[in-house]
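Researcher: Go.
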Amino acid sequence: MIPFLVEIYPIDCTLISEVDQNIIINLSKRRNDSLEGQLKKGKTVIGRLFTSNPKVNKPAMWSFIKNNNEFEGEIILFKNNYLWHPFQNEINSENVNRVLFSGLAYSLNSMLKDRDLLKASSGFFKIGKGCYGGRLKKV
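Model: Structure:
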């Protein structure tokens, strides 16, 4: 058996709610099939959030975990106000700068009654500079 050295680069991909800048998603870990991070209100961690890339037969997805509750939904990506999807050729995936997490607010509402969080999670999040559209920025 040959040992392999694996160097892990830190990820600092922050998504900021356009409705309430106090609500953020900080993606900080790369997994085999997704990015992992935290949904936060200020410094308070609400739960863990995972994002996955679109596949040939499946759109980009999110999943949220808090305690024994787990929810998932579709990620909808935009460049400004224009919808991005893998079957078009006008917008490159690295140029997306906004995202909607379809169903996130509805899912959070089933366990949390924080009105600000629900409003923010139902709207757009701005994709930060540490991100490369829906992908990791190459170093």
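Model: The helical segments are 104-109, 115-121.
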